[in-house]
Automatic annotation (TrEMBL):
<dbReference type="InterPro" id="IPR016181">
    <property type="entry name" value="Acyl_CoA_acyltransferase"/>
</dbReference>
<protein>
    <submittedName>
        <fullName>RimJ/RimL family protein N-acetyltransferase</fullName>
    </submittedName>
</protein>
<dbReference type="InterPro" id="IPR000182">
    <property type="entry name" value="GNAT_dom"/>
</dbReference>
<dbReference type="GO" id="GO:0016747">
    <property type="term" value="F:acyltransferase activity, transferring groups other than amino-acyl groups"/>
</dbReference>
<dbReference type="Pfam" id="PF00583">
    <property type="entry name" value="Acetyltransf_1"/>
</dbReference>
<feature type="domain" description="N-acetyltransferase">
    <location>
        <begin position="72"/>
        <end position="228"/>
    </location>
</feature>
């Protein structure tokens, strides 16, 4: 019998429970989630019938929109007075991360305590720091935000609350997107929740176009140790 449960150890270390991505929405795959304890993630087309998902205990968590940009469609934007750097204080990056990612799908999951959702994003950012996949925005001598990427994917764009609404994010993202295109990628893509309107607007203004959307469902068998 085919195994439809793909372990996600990067989530397990944050939630202190076995975690899986379910690779199919077929009934056979959904049945497999009934046999073990753990937290499960399933991504589906928004037009897919969700009757079986509810039958097997899945609940809606978030929607992800995928903006993409071809190099020839990129619309760069420049602004004076900002600096990009791969040399930064990691504690300042982590401080921004701790505050910036409060609307993600794990924060919206009523089964996951907020402190564990926070830890999941913090762990991810620490991994990206270790892999040297973060570019920092320096403004007025301070770390104002950061951008994380991997190959042709834009993973994170975060601004310190002190510097939001100042028009810095567009110029910052523009510079970083140019850096990725210079690495030889003909197309860049990212994934953004529609609740994050600010990021969506930034990338659309740079020439990104919305290609598709994905609905994300979660399921929990057992319990998550709230004190973990």
């Amino acid at each position: 019998m085919e195994n439809y449960l793909q372990p996600t150890p990067w989530d397990k270390r944050s939630f202190i429970i076995d975690t899986y991505e379910v690779t199919s929405s077929s009934e056979e795959a959904l049945k497999q989630t009934n046999n073990i304890e753990g937290h499960f993630t399933l991504k589906i087309d928004p037009l897919e019938n969700t009757e079986n998902l509810k039958k097997y205990g899945f609940y809606y968590a978030d929607t992800l929109i995928e903006p993409i940009c071809k190099a020839e469609n990129f619309e760069p934007y420049e602004q004076q007075g900002i600096e990009m750097s791969r040399q930064y204080d990691r504690n300042e990056i982590l401080e921004i991360a701790e505050e910036a990612f409060k609307g993600g799908r794990f924060h919206r999951d009523f089964n996951i305590p907020n402190h564990m959702a926070d830890r999941r994003y913090m762990n991810w950012v620490q991994d990206l720091i270790e892999k040297d996949l973060i570019i920092a925005l320096i403004y007025e001598g301070k770390t104002a935000g950061f951008y994380a990427y991997e190959k042709d994917k834009i993973l994170l764009l975060a601004m310190s609350k002190e510097y939001r609404g100042k028009g810095l994010a567009k110029a910052f993202a523009s510079y970083c997107v140019q850096e990725q295109f210079a690495m030889g990628h003909p197309i860049l893509k990212t994934s953004i929740s529609p609740s994050n309107v600010a990021s969506l607007n930034v990338f659309i203004s740079l020439g990104f176009r919305l290609r598709k959307s994905t609905d994300v469902y979660h399921k929990l068998n057992g319990s998550i140790p709230y004190g973990g």
